[in-house]
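User: Please fill in residues for this 92-position structure.
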C-alpha cells in the first residue's frame, strides 16, 4: 500500500487512521474499502493484543485473502503515468 500513498501523496501516512481517511477520499475506490480496511485493522489489533487468542487456519486464510484483495484494488487505482511520475513504480 505504500505504492498507493507515494503515488498520490508523496509519502506514507503517519497512522493507520490517516491511511484509511486518505483511502476513503479517493473517488476511484469504492466507498466500502475504507470501512473494510478499518474492520481488518480492528481485527488485527484484537488478535495481536489478546493474551490467549487462537485463530483458526480458516479465519487466518480468510483474513489474508481479504487483505490481499484490498491491496490489489487499491494498487490498481494508481494510473501507470502517476506511478512513474511520482516514483511509486520504483517501490513496487
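Assistant: Residues filled in for all 92 positions:
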Amino acid at each position: 500500500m505504500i505504492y498507493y500513498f507515494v503515488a498520490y501523496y508523496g509519502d506514507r501516512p503517519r497512522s493507520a487512521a490517516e491511511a484509511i481517511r486518505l483511502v476513503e477520499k479517493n473517488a476511484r475506490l469504492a466507498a466500502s474499502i475504507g470501512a473494510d480496511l478499518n474492520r481488518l485493522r480492528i481485527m488485527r489489533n484484537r488478535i495481536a493484543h489478546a493474551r490467549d487468542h487462537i485463530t483458526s487456519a480458516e479465519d487466518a486464510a480468510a483474513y489474508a485473502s481479504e487483505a490481499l484483495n484490498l491491496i490489489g484494488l487499491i494498487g490498481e487505482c494508481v494510473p501507470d503515468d502517476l506511478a512513474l511520475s511520482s516514483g511509486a513504480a520504483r517501490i513496487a
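For context: The helical segments are 2-9, 16-25, 32-49, 57-76, 80-86.
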